[in-house]
Amino acid sequence: MGGPNLEVFKFSLYLFIPICALLHFGDPQWYRNTVLPYKEQLFPPEQRLLQATYNCYTRQLPTDQSSLREELARIKGERLARRLAKQEESERRL
């Protein structure tokens, strides 16, 4: 087994590694430079997310029931058209 010097070394590692990690990762400058940009990539702001979703349509989100039904009908129509086109293409291949 090791001697008392090994135990002192292990104790110092067990003690100082977490303290050094807290000092490094707890630095506000490191947090601003590293964590916040990555957080913006993972969880974009809602406004930017909505703009990316509806950018090609340049529409607003439906707020009342009639406009919501119109939007759902439009989406269902697009899906049906894509499904029919896909079926026709698969039938042509056969």
Task: Characterize this entry briefly.
The chain is mainly alpha-helical and 94 residues long. It has helices at residues 4-25, 28-42, 46-54, 65-93. Helices cover 80% and strands 0% of the residues.
Keywords:
94 residues, mainly alpha, 4 helices
N-to-C series of helices and strands: HHHH
Radius of gyration from the alpha-carbon trace, in angstroms: 29 Å
Q: How many helices does DSSP assign?
A: 4
How many individual β-strands? 0
Relative helix content: over 70%
Q: Give the overall average pLDDT.
A: 86
Shape: elongated
Beginning-to-end CA distance, first to last residue: 75 Å
As residue ranges, the low-confidence spans are: none
What percent of residues are in strands? under 5%
Structural class: mainly alpha
What's the assembly state of these chains? Answer: single chain
Biggest beta sheet attributes: none
